[in-house]
Design goal:
Layout: E1 5-10, H1 13-24, E2 27-28, E3 37-41, E4 47-52, E5 64-68, H2 72-84, E6 93-95, E7 98-104, E8 110-116
Parallel strand pairs: 1-4, 5-8
Antiparallel strand pairs: 2-3, 3-4, 6-7, 7-8
């Protein structure tokens, strides 16, 4: 069994659509300007669904989505871009798991981007 899709409830569908398209290279499957629903894919079978949620809804503390990069420099370049574009992002974190950053989204969830020293294999 593999994961098919993730459905995020967001306040601003077009802005969130642009974020995932522009920062993570996800491919649009629907119009980018729909205020209600947008769908993007990664070209490897994963589908991201964005639906407009209530303005007062929040995700549980610690909820996040993670993306992997192959090289540490990719994480650092993405961090520099976010800082230059004033997109809310953590400092670069380096620990025993690898090198990572966390984008903070308006709904309260985070998007992790990391280059890991090791991978968990089941």
């Amino acid at each position: 069994m593999k994961i098919d899709h993730l459905d995020l409830q967001v306040r601003d569908v077009p802005a969130t659509f642009a974020f995932f398209r522009d920062y993570f290279g996800l491919t649009p499957q629907t119009r980018p300007d729909s205020p209600q629903l947008a769908i993007l894919t990664d070209g490897h079978g994963f589908v991201l669904v964005l639906q407009r949620g209530a303005a007062d809804e929040r995700y549980p503390q610690g909820f996040h989505v993670g993306f992997l990069r192959d090289e540490v420099d990719e994480v650092r370049r993405l961090h520099a871009r976010a800082v230059a574009e004033q997109v809310p992002v953590s400092e670069v974190i380096v620990n025993g798991r690898g090198t990572m950053i966390y984008f903070t989204r308006p709904e309260g969830y985070h998007v992790e981007v990391s280059c890991q020293n090791h991978r968990f294999v089941g």
